Amino acid sequence: MLIDTDSFADLTYCTNIHPANGWNDVSQALHHHAPTIKAATSPNAPFGIGLRLSGDESRELLAGNNLRAFRDQLDDLGCYVSLINGFPHGPFHGTPVKADVHAPDWRSDERLDYTCRLADALATLLPPGGDGGISTNPLSYSSWIKRDGGLITHMTRNIARSVAHLVRVGRDTGRLIHLDIEPEPDGVIETSQQFVDFFETELLSTGRATLCDALGVDKNEAEQLLRDHVAVCLDTCHAAVMFEPMDECIQRYLDAGIRIGRVQISSAVRASFAGSSSDIAQVKQALAPFSESVYLHQVV
Prior knowledge:
Layout: E1 12-14, H1 23-41, E2 47-52, H2 55-62, H3 66-77, E3 79-85, H4 109-125, E4 131-136, H5 142-145, H6 149-173, E5 176-181, H7 192-215, H8 219-229, E6 230-235, H9 236-241, H10 246-255, E7 260-264, H11 277-287
Parallel strand pairs: 1-2, 2-3, 3-4, 4-5, 5-6, 6-7
């Protein structure tokens, strides 16, 4: 749910920690794990799920009767979906992911199409009266882009095209869905200040013009639609790795009039040492278990 000074937020459980390869695996993992977690955390009320879907799984979910059957499964479990993790498009378990977690990035039509498919699914899954969010990557992996102004413009246009789809979905279904861009170390957008800069200098110029053309609205309405449908995904681990205090991040977004679409509560590892060779050796030994071949582990 959107966070502002006058409202509270849903607490949801993200399914991306459960290995799955294909829609059937996603459904089975939810059926296996959700009842236990719900019983421990929300035994007498509906339990919120943050659903992770790959590109292929999003296509499978929208095929045939799968979406309706999944809605029935959620009802049987006493669960609902208000958030979808649309950051990793490909496999997320059992195979090296690393920087490819960003692929395809916002240069690609597939990233745009994938996000629109997730919106179509979420519009059906959202409870009446609720709003929903789709998280996405911070445009791209920074070393792929090298701050190329032309590429940033192209990606901004694709973001705006996705917003146009969210607006149309909202008009058709009455569901407010926001795109939650997630700053991350080594992404094109790493920090809260970079997000604000992108929002104010790129999205409210290039993005606004693109939205005006796509929807036939004036500049003022386009800006409001961007503010309604583009939010930030604030990951506490990513902010910590960039040494950003949470209160400063949140205040910066509020001051800029940018909505916080979700907060991902996760942790970072911090190591402190004086710099002696023996001390460094102890730190390396303590950190060694976190070195593995699957995920992208940024170090600052």
